[in-house]
């Protein structure tokens, strides 16, 4: 119950802060509060949101993973190579291959954590470097531009011509993102597995005594993030129309900051899909607004660092500490 109250309080606060920032940026810049910029924000945020809902499941289960962005880059390369072997394939075969490789890479993390009792952040730091090192070694840092036609053909879901003659559009990554968000929401809120993930993240020993399979929880959590990393990697290749080995390098910190900012607690047992999406959008809106205002990108990195610090501090502040003040307010 307390986690429920805390989660909804975080979502409400995030929504209020996002609205305030949007109002400020609409006055600070001429182009922020426009339909075209809003559509661009949605298209460019799609991949990060896909990554974020996958990471959310890991955080709910009490783990942490910083290897998913590099894993997505590995998935891109291996998927394109596999598609070449089968003659190009299509969206169905591409998604199946990418999802399978992503789940496999996530399962490797879960195996290391469960079998050897390695702390999740240590295990994923290791696989982060292993995956990236192997990728750069075998590709020699060379990008792939010769992609199947179906992967490079832009799929427009909605388009509209503006008065100035320009076109605004919603593209395929947004549809894939919505599907991933809905699937994750169903997993953690409408299934027994979701309830077990929350219980395991909140109290691992209690969950073990209750009969929850700890190994299964870790494989499901990290496998789900691997699935999202695989899908996100393929969508990123479609959006960029190329495969670059270091294109996603460093994105893991932005996503982690967004998910924790959205209410997921480092330590497990708390988090929501809505808060997660709000966290990503808040960071994307901040970055977009700073770019439109001509602020240095290095300033955005400092802001991300501050967000991580504040979010981690708040995630470790339990609702119990606020209860006496809440009771005093109620008594008054």
Give your account of this protein's structure.
The protein has 332 residues and is mostly helical. Helix content is 73%, strand content 3%. A two-stranded antiparallel ribbon has the order 1-2. It is globular. Mean pLDDT is 89; it is low at 318-332.
Low-confidence stretches: 318-332
Number of helices: 14
Q: Please bin the fraction of helical residues.
A: over 70%
Would you tell me the overall average pLDDT? 89
Principal-axes geometry comes out as globular
Structure class: mainly alpha
Placed side by side, the strands forming the largest sheet appear as 1-2
Query: Main beta sheet, described?
Result: 2 strands, antiparallel
| Percent of sequence in beta strands | under 5%
Keyphrases for this structure?
mainly alpha; 73% helix
Quickly describe the structure.
Helices cover 73% and strands 3% of the residues. By secondary structure, it is mostly helical. The protein starts with a helix and ends with a helix.
């Amino acid at each position: 119950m307390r986690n429920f109250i805390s989660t909804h309080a975080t979502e409400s606060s995030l929504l209020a802060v996002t609205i305030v920032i949007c109002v400020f940026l609409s006055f600070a810049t001429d182009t922020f509060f426009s339909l075209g910029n809003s559509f661009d924000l949605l298209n460019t945020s799609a991949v990060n949101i896909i990554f974020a809902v996958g990471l959310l499941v890991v955080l709910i289960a009490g783990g942490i993973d910083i290897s998913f962005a590099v894993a997505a880059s590995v998935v891109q390369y291996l998927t394109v190579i596999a598609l070449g072997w089968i003659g190009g394939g299509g969206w169905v075969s591409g998604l199946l291959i990418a999802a399978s490789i992503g789940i496999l890479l996530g399962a490797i993390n879960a195996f290391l954590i469960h079998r050897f009792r390695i702390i999740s952040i240590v295990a994923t730091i290791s696989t982060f470097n292993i995956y990236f090192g192997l990728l750069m070694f075998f590709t020699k840092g060379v990008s792939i531009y010769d992609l199947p036609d179906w992967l490079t053909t832009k799929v427009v879901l909605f388009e509209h011509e503006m008065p100035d003659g320009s076109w605004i559009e919603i593209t395929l990554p947004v549809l894939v993102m919505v599907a991933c968000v809905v699937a994750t929401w169903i997993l953690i809120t409408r299934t027994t597995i979701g309830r077990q993930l929350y219980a395991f993240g909140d109290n691992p020993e209690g969950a073990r005594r209750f009969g929850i399979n700890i190994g299964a929880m870790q494989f499901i959590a990290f496998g789900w993030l691997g699935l999202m990393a695989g899908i996100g990697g393929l969508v990123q290749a479609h959006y960029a129309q190329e495969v670059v080995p270091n294109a996603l390098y460093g994105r893991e910190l932005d996503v982690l900051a967004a998910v924790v900012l959205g209410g997921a607690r480092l330590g497990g047992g708390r988090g929501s899909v809505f808060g997660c999406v709000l966290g990503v959008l808040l960071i994307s809106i901040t970055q977009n607004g700073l770019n439109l205002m001509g602020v240095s990108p290095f300033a955005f990195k400092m802001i991300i660092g501050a967000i991580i610090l504040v979010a981690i501090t708040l995630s470790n502040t339990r609702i119990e500490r606020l209860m006496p003040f809440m009771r005093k307010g109620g008594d008054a």
